[in-house]
Amino acid sequence: MKNWEAMEAFIEVVKQGSFSSAAIKLSVSASHISRLITQLEAELGTTLLFRTTRRIRLSEAGELYYQHCRGLPEALSSAEEVISTLNQAPIGLFKMTCATTFGERYIAPLMNDFLLDHPKIELDFHLTNRAVDIIDEGYDLAIRMGAMKDSSHLSRRLCDRVEYLCASRDYIDQHGMPHTLAELNKHHCLIGSKSHWLFQQDGQRKEIKITSQWRSNSGPALIDAVRKGLGIAQLPDYYVNDDLASGKLIALLPQYQYPYSGVWLVYPKVRQPSPKLQRICDYLIQRFKENPAFAK
């Protein structure tokens, strides 16, 4: 890019047919144009223009150079226009990921609504309970649950989430009710994708490692096992609120319940977040504020 100004001056001289006309077009002096062309010829080690008092004429090297360079200013202008358009309206591919059930139940419907107003976005929405590497796997946005641990990414809080320790009435009738955290190791504990359960004890966050003979990375499979009395599980509110309200499930150890864990919008650290990312994050946060029932 060091010869860009001189190249632009050369192209304009050829187009206008004179140094003075090129200078007017570029809003500089004719002497400045002359110096730029001289510097360019010195840099290239060849003569580009034959100058007379009446006209200019391209040398063989000048003709070749002009043919290769003449489209570059327009290409740069077009590139800048494209970027300017990109910065004004969200367009192009947007790749995001979310835990399966939360994504199916809440995020997918909202994103589908968003796309109705932004048809130029191409959405790639991957639902998985696996903790993806958003950098290596090329994601623009990940929606994650619980405490944020990776400081290499940026995040915005989408909503609160409460996790309930619960069991069916049949299970409690057969095995009794645990009264302390220590008693959990005497019960049939069912675990999902996490092997640690989160509690609060004496005002402090406490994680307990759970061992189990039943494990699945599927939330629906886990809640089905709890409903059928196979054991105790810790599940987020959006899985169990209805069952708790109807009495099908019983909340256990409420005195140890951790008050809130979050749902987070997580994205790579970048110098300038794209308009797509900013618009989508703002949209999701606003929709959850307008309707807290999304996460209840």
UniProtKB/TrEMBL annotation:
It comes from the Bacteria. Residues 1-59 form the HTH lysR-type domain. Belongs to the LysR transcriptional regulatory family. InterPro entries: LysR-type_TF_proteobact-type (IPR058163), LysR_HTH_N (IPR000847), LysR_subst-bd (IPR005119), WH-like_DNA-bd_sf (IPR036388), WH_DNA-bd_sf (IPR036390). This is LysR family transcriptional regulator. It holds the Pfam family HTH_1. Keywords: DNA-binding, Transcription, Transcription regulation. PROSITE patterns: HTH_LYSR.
